[in-house]
Design a protein that fits this description.
332 residues; 9 helices
Amino acid sequence: MAYEKPEKTDYLKEPAVRTIPDEDVIRHRPLWFRQALAAPHESRVLNVDGNDIHYLRWGNDDPKRPGLLFVHGNGAHAHWFHFIAPLLTDHYNVASMDLGGMGDSGWRMSYSRETFAREIGEVALAAGLGPKPVVVGHSFGGFVTLIAGKHYGDRLGGLILCDFTVRPADNAHEWFLNDPERRPTKIYKSFEEACSRFRLAPLQPCANGFIVDYIGPLSLRQVTKGETRGKRTFEDTGWTWKFDASIFNGLRMGNDHAEIYKNLACKGAVMFGLESKDYDPKTITFLRELTPEKPVFTVPGAQHHIMLDQPQAFATAVGALMAQWQAEGALG
């Protein structure tokens, strides 16, 4: 997830999980990262229920080759996985999408968990990701990926939920229903000022500063006074964040997540950052008792944003699950 640096009155006031000395933050782009960004890929658009959904695609045109789709978190975008996807293309076709109202996808007049599920399911099936694609969802993306699994599970190979907690019905959390209404994103006069306001949410430092420096500028768009997207007409000219803040006003999550996860018609797994605020041994125990056949594991050295903190370990974990499920015949 990502958002602009909050003012004192902002509703986002979570403290950083821990601190990292400035000298330990890596700013130069290492060779593997530069090679990943340079890997050939396509930018595509699929219309889902009247809205253009943008996604990036790596790989070849073999319809039988297994594949996977990455789904980003709240306020993020497809480029959060731009440096992950090429690490997996030796064996798989890969796509990374922008959810509706975020990234370079169109904005809707209204949003629900079902509209997001439709976008995920339709992109997964249309992107050339093999007979039964796997969907990998992070944080908010894990939530809507789970809902997609409810509706598309029989056509998918599996779901990997990353730092999203599947809770029992009696402990369900509604992230948005009780929050104050989110105000429209601020419009900044200059691109440089807007970039300086980029932060991760929940707040955390990231030793891989070169990744944050990459995704931050790609989170912005230039707007013109009087321009309309979705329900918003921009009141000024300048730079603002790509996500539609109105998405989360009253968005219902539901209390059926454990039931959905238990009864998935495809494979499932859950990954947590070992240092994440969402990691809780009690959650691990609950999930293992709920579905003993579905692996639950942690990535050392990672906080909530696993793919930023430990990108190569994240890609290795996804690749290992893909290889196992392919060996079991789950990917078609």
